[in-house]
Records
---
Amino acid sequence: MSDRCAILPPMRMTWGDFWSLIGTLEGKADREGCGRLADKLSRRSVPDIIGFAERHAEALHRLDQEKFGMLPVADLTDRDGGPFPQSADHFLYARCAVVAAGREVWERVFFDVGAFAPYTSTRYDGEWLLYVVDEAYEKATGRAWERTTRYCFETFSNLDGWPHLRDRTA
């Protein structure tokens, strides 16, 4: 697991504020949109930047569930024509794409696994969203982001979402 996973003091950014900022992306986490979001976030206070990081990590952590991670990549097959599994990184980027799609999509997938499936496509790569906080913090402070978040967003870190992994650690 990443060294970005730890316990931090309470933050002040609300979910409403977080989703409003995510709206800057207009539904997709491409380089341009994430650059706009980083610029916008960098003009806010450092506690807001930290709060955004916390909310983003929590949103990704909540999506770190077996029912989403075991979906195959939507537009790939293996050489025999069978389903192509998501890698840990691909699954993280798919979760970022779901977050970038906005609050409505993020909430819907918890009740409809099929709503997550399109975001496993190679057309949706949310990786750029992972760098927004680093860029915003550096623009705001002149220093590199070296903080951790309360929730770890790395794949398999949400043991409640992967029951067979939780059972092995008990």
Note: Strands lie at 72-77, 83-85.
---
Amino acid sequence: MQRWRRLSQGAFFTLFLSAPLFDLFRYDLTRGHFYLLGGEWRLGIETVLVGTLSPTEIALQVLFRGLLPLLFLVSLFIFISWRYGRLYCGWLCPHFAVVEGINRSMLKAFAKPTLWENRDLSLGRGDRRWWLVPPLLAILVSFIWAVVLLTYLLPPAEIYANLYHASLTANQLRFISVATLLLSLEFLFARHLFCRFGCAVGMFQSLAWMANRRAMVIIFRSSRSSICQHCSNGCDKSCPMRLKPRSQKRRMFTCTQCGVCIARCGQTQQQLGSGEITLLPWRSGTVAADGSREP
């Protein structure tokens, strides 16, 4: 499962980087319209200036080229979130993929995912050779993100050519510098905190998910809880969002359905020889509605 999730994250991250290059999706400030799937995408309201369409025809263009496609995409997003939770966050979001990557480098360097958490003694005291990796990784990714975000607003060929020849305009340089600084600080010190409390897309998914008592959720097989006495809370430590997977649904409000805790529990059960696949399976329907516990 985690292998497929990494593949989906990698594919979507590649799409995020390359979409402006191939005009798959971007808004060009210099031309004043969107590019979608390789072609120009306009609402058609510019025809008001030349008077070639009636008000009714203009309204229909806005409806069918703007409002209805947007309504369909929003409705689909709401339905997926209502049914399955924050799947986008855990399986596609490029920000969350970076968060997990920096978390892994922090664990190697300091034996803890953030500087203010307790060290995971099972990982030793960390490796000094990795100390510079998290900040360098955060700065590098932030710079790449800043450049890519700018290509969503200005012609990518212009941005990359100016970058290659070190001839960025003042505004382009200012945007990239400020964005790199802010993103670096966020990736170094916030990460999962931003995902939990600052991301509007994530919060939107969580609200839709919590509105459905039967939505898919990770539940805890409480009848086998005695087995947990022999492990070191691996599911809690592995959660990228720093949640408690054995808690009830309302305490896992920002769960991204990444399934890392499921995989970690399965590995632990295999090591203990308990014969259990995992104590944290995905469930939906009645079991989910009954408080995220399964006998």
Note: The longest helix spans residues 55-84.
---
Amino acid sequence: MKLRSLLFVPGDRPERFPKAAASGADALILDLEDSVALEKKPEARLAIAEWLAGERQVPCFVRVNPLDGAETLADLAAVLEAKPDGIMLPKAEGAASVRALIELAGGACPPILPIASETAAAVFELSTYREVAGHLAGLTWGAEDLPAAIGAATSRNPDGSYTAPYETVRSLVLFAAHAAGVPAIETVYPNIADTDGLDGYVARGSRDGFTGMMAIHPNQVTPINTGFSPSDAQIAHARAVVQAFADNPGAGALKLDGKMIDQPHLKQARALLARAEG
């Protein structure tokens, strides 16, 4: 499943589902958690189940409610029969939360995408996702719930960049995803009107090793898809690196376009080509 862009849609706004599906997003996240008021969750479950039961044009994840509340079981009971392509688990705290969700689902659960950084305890469980990698669709993080959980005023500096504690958490989730061998999904960019800021944020995420990103508006999908897709120049260079080593079997290091390349460059080139072909 290609996961460059994952677009959130409130579960109680079914009139938005078709527009979201037509946005070009690689996947939708049909939300039953934060964007849906408690009294509207039953109707949101019904709307999502009805949508999932129809002819699906784009993979659909369902964000259920956190395991520490009373809503998760009802969420799963409503949507699992319609076979969503994945479940997003908020406030996840490592492998134990993944196993608990699978148990609540009756032992059979679609791939799980944990939001892995929304509590203080979650940060200390990031390394355990390797234990349940086979059940994961990826790993992502959030920059809003954690400051609220620890009583911080904000996760951002005045210029919109993350403060040091949240930069650390972002990095740890990135490494945890790669340690587990699953896609690393960047968190949302909340300023919908700031297109230049979004472009920069996407470029930074791609540069740092994230392979996709969540979106909160259809207008964000195309820039995200573009930013997390290798460019023609990157593909051409990667092919040249692979070809250079193919032409020189046994070489540990080579010169290409006046620069030295070695095995890490070859590994990086192969990974980029795999993403381009996926």
Note: The CA atoms of residues 155 and 164 lie 9 Å apart.
